Amino acid sequence: MKTIKTIIRTEKIKTIQQLHNVGAHNNRLKDVPNASPNHDIKRLIGTTNLVFDVKKYLEKHDLSIGGLRKNAVICNELLLTLSPEYFDENELDFKNKFNKKNTLDFIKKAKDFLINKYGNKLVHLSVHLDESTPHIHAVVVPTYLDNVSGKHKLAAKRFFDRSDLQLLQKEYCETFKSIKEYKFSYQEKSTAKHQDLKSFYKNLDDTKKALTVEAVGLKQRVQLLENKNKALIQEVKSSFIEKVNLTDELITEQEKVIKLESFITKTLMIVEKVAPLIINKLRNIFIKKDNNFFNKYLDKKRANKKEHKNTVNKSEQPRNSIIKPKSKPSD
């Protein structure tokens, strides 16, 4: 189970100028360096004029700022929050930076705690959601009814002395014990818990500066990673395009091979059908040529033989005419 720290701080307000500055800050009437520009705040009690709200309360109880002793505490400001991990837990579905359920639970319980503890003395209560961690600002006018005089008096020590502040820490922490998902705690008797709001904001500003430096470094790393990612994506795209081109070429060559195979198959089928006819035709042609050749050869032979015989006969005829027959011998 995660441990969550409860944080509550107080500051004394002794002058009209100080009261005016607190009101301007809480109502975002002046620039706040550590807040986002949209000034996302919710004022639950009071108006935009804190000085007016305090004076009105004092007048209602027959008191006035001008009639107070020098250095008297006019009112006390309280700041209430929880450790940041409480608001960052799980889904950030509230303002895109906080967990909605946890944030609303904090606002309700802190508001109820302040109202139950201070009642109508609580003249201002605002919720700030424009900084790194949700928190509540409250202003309490510490009056009490004096039983002797029957008049109301200001007495900050009756509400905010050391023992009261320690009890305030404990009671505030116990407010959240009904949330069972977390373990809530506070550092008892810690002077850090009671530092004034000026110190708190100084520490907050220092933390912001440190985080800003870290954020710049992270931003540069993110930019570097984004550039590498873009280069990688471009490389993958180029590789993919090259692969697609090669695939297209391969498909084209395969189509050519298929067409060639089809042409060869068809040609062979035609040749298979036509070949016997061509062979017979050629055979007849050659047979006819052979017959003509042999006939001519035989005719030539016969002619040569006949011519030779005639020549012989002619050469023998004169020779026979001069030869006399032999006489027979006498008995």
Name the average pLDDT.
Answer: 84
Number of strands: 8
In spatial order, strands of the major sheet run 2-4-5-3-1-8
- Give the DSSP E fraction (strand runs of 2 or more residues): 5-15%
Describe this structure in words.
- This protein has a domain at 2-193: BirA Bifunctional Protein, domain 2 (2-Layer Sandwich).
- Helices cover 57% and strands 15% of the residues.
- The protein is built from seven helices and eight strands; from the N terminus they run βαβαβααββββααβα.
- A six-stranded mixed β-sheet has the order 2-4-5-3-1-8, sandwiched between helices. The chain has a two-stranded antiparallel ribbon with strand order 6-7.
- Strand 4 and strand 5 (135-140) form a beta hairpin.
- The longest helix is centred in the C-terminal third of the chain and has 126 residues, at 197-322.
- 18% of the residues are buried.
- The model is unreliable at 191-195 (pLDDT under 50).
Structure summarized in a few sentences:
57% of the residues lie in helices and 15% in strands. By secondary structure, the protein is of the alpha+beta class.
